Known about the structure:
By secondary structure, this protein is mainly alpha-helical.
Amino acid sequence: MESKSFIKNLFDFDFSEFVTPKIIKALYILCMVGIAIGALMIIVNGFNISTLFGILSLLIFAPLYVVIGLLIIRVWLELVIVFFKIHDYVKDLKDKE
Length: 97
C-alpha cells in the first residue's frame, strides 16, 4: 500500500494510515520548548521571591524540573511508539498466516 500524504491521512476516516508516528518528533520538540519555558518561569519567579531562592531555582529546581520533565515526556512518547510497533508486528504476523 502506497503511503498517502500527511494532509490526506488527517482526513482518512478509515484510519488506514496512522498520523501519530509521523508527528511524534515534532511533539517531542514542542514538549521540550514547553519544558524550557517552564524552567525559565521557575527561575524568574524564584528571583522575584528573593535572590537566594532565585539562585536555588537556577541551580537546583529548574534543572531538576527539566530532567524529570524530559524523562517523563520521553517515556510516554516511547510508549506510544512501542504501541505502534506492536501493531506493525502483529499485522506482519497476521499477513504471514
